[in-house]
Amino acid sequence: MNGTVRKTVALLALALLALLGTVAGAVNVQIRPGSPEVEVALRQALQELGTGDVTFTLVASAGPTFRLGGVPAFNPDVVSRSLTRGGERVVEFNPNGPLPLAQAVKLEAARVLGLPENATPQDVRARYGGADLNADGRIDLADFAILTANYGKNGSGLPGDLNGDGKVDGVDLQLFSKFYTLP
Ligand SMILES: [Ca+2]
Ligand SMILES: [Ca+2]
Predict the structure, then answer these.
(1) Please, which domain of life does this record's source organism belong to (predicted)?
(2) What domains are defined for the chain?
(3) Which of 5, 84, 93, 100 has CA atoms 20 to 30 A from the CA of 158?
């Protein structure tokens, strides 16, 4: 097959796969909310950061603590600060800061998730979809080529084994098609 034909076949395969159904990706996020107010903001932030195919679920029993206020008092222009108390990471939010709590919490939640500020759904998919196989920040035919090169193989840590079950098969193709958007 020449390049154009291969590309066409790949696109058709993906278009068909997109019709076959969906496999959702759920990501557990470990952050301890220090108060009900912070928890509400945190749950809202995680919901907003989710994309429909990547969902973030709060695990409130581990991870850094997010809490409102702290000693000493904040400078008025500070949104939040990160510190370590007794070996544990704490993020304190300025109760009178320049941003509403919901927005401030979302920024810090994105940081915990390793996402850029104002993360787009594309950022979330690239980071958590597992489909950016060559880790260049985009999900495209180069990644698809890596997956197809490993298709049918068994083993641990195979590139293209998106669901981590030790084989690269149709399930991984389906997952990939969830994160790949036709150009
Ligand atoms: Ca890529
Ligand atoms: Ca697999």
Answers:
(1) Bacteria
(2) 25-125 (3.40.390.10), 132-183 (1.10.1330.10)
(3) 5
